[in-house]
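Internal ticket #5521
Category: modeling
Description: The requester needs a full-assembly model to guide mutagenesis choices. All entity lines are attached below as received. Residue total reported by intake: 549.
Assigned to: D.W.
Attached entities:
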Amino acid sequence: MSKTPESQLNPSLHLILLALMAGDRHGYAIMQAVEGITRGATRLGPATLYTNLKKLLELGFVVEVAERPDPALDDERRRYYRITAQGQTVAAAETRRLEAIVAYAHSIQLAV
Amino acid sequence: MTGRNDDPAWLHLLDRAYALALYLYPAEHRRDYGPWIRQALRDRAREVVRGERSLSQLLLELPSDLLGTLWEEHTMSFSGFSLRRVFGWVGALGLTLVAVLNADRAGDWYYRHYSPRAVAWRESERAWDTQRQVLAGFLTYLDRQGTPRAQALRLALDPVPDAPWRPESKEDEVAAAYQRRKAEVTALQRRPLDAVARAALVTACGHEDICDPRRMAAMLQQQATDNAHTWLWALHLAKEARDENAQRNALRHMADATYFADPSFLLTQEVIRQRRAYRGDDAELDDRLYERTRSFSVAPPDGLIASCADAQRRGEDDVLDQCRRIGARLSNAGSAYARSVGLRVAYRLAVSDDERAVIAEQYRQNTWLRRQSIPLDGQGRIGPYAHGTQWLAAWETADSEVSALQHWLESRQIPRQAPTDFRLSASALNRLAGVMP
């Protein structure tokens, strides 16, 4: 079975793409966004974050944009990331796949 | 890209240590992403500085974060032999082995010190110290007496230890304690017992694997009691033993019983009364003591609810009538636990969606139930600190002895002289065993 783009997404990659759907973010902002999306259930470590970002860059789902400080934090320069059109498509497809699973679970009256 | 001047010294140290750990990664990855990874680590560390999390939580996360990515990066970038790559692999393998061999210990350490349950346990243990001293004194007093009744009461009041950090597991000393308890109960059953001792022994059976439900149900049938809680126990055990006659008998007695008082509540009240004699008013401490009584046995309501459901299915009107009476009385009881049982019975017997909606709303407003997360229409185990902060156990009139005790507590009358020895009144002893004097 050949790999489709969305089948290469694991949960962490999917969450990072969702975090970037709201706009360009730097690494720490992505970590915070993922924690917010999952209500604290998933905390990305620094190494895990950048390994995943590297994968997303290689797949073409994400691009790096200009480095600049985040005024909300400090004046350290931070590398920002942006989701590409392909990344948005893949994230949406994965989301639809998960929705179908949840819908099935509800249909068999599984307590979710 | 380095830390800020206002970062604490430990953060700089952590940053430098982490920079060294990054040498385990392939050079290309370290060059491209190392500074940004370190920056993210510093951001995480500043969460500790802001008090958003603890340093130990951060330190425990880092090894798995590193190990999980080390293998991946080396695998992705493998392209030929180099000494540095060998060292990287050896280092990664070594770290993995160390982590695997110690993961359980690390997890256990963290759980014992920082999990929400551990924090809550420590706080309650601090509050429990005084009460435990009083209780320990009483248990010693019962031990010295040595009579079957005293032995049974001691078993009923001395909680079977739950593993405090992992309640779902029974390891080592907890397993041994279970075996000791089982042996004591078995030995005591062979002796001639009075009604008080029989009821106390049943109460000591907090877990099914300690006592034989058939034998315990038969023991309870032999005694007269006006305590609905004791009959609730009898009903539960009769259900376990699949004894329909015993179930009907227990339901009938429960419907006609005059009060509902479980031994833990009664003991708590008596202990608080003694404590107040020593220490005076302390409502907060009393609340915590009350919260702590989970370790004593409370009759599970599942047998009652299942019996009522069976009666409804079979159309047994006389039994249904008893169930409705029990449900109504429990729903108006002072104890939050008793009310929860009453509402669950009423919900099961409700005949219309409107009626069920009203009951569901009442259930939702019960703060104790929200904390326990027991579903209205399901079977739920009573969790830690099962009793809420409701005091009143009596569900009948204010003339019952339990109500009088409650009234005494609320009026906060403190004896002039502190008692020098812990002892319970004869009537309290009987009520602890679920038997009317």
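Resolution: model delivered.
Comment from assignee: The interface with chain A takes residues 1, 4, 29, 32-33, 36-41, 43-44, 61-62, 64-66, 68-69, 72-73 of chain B (CB under 8 Å).
Ticket closed.
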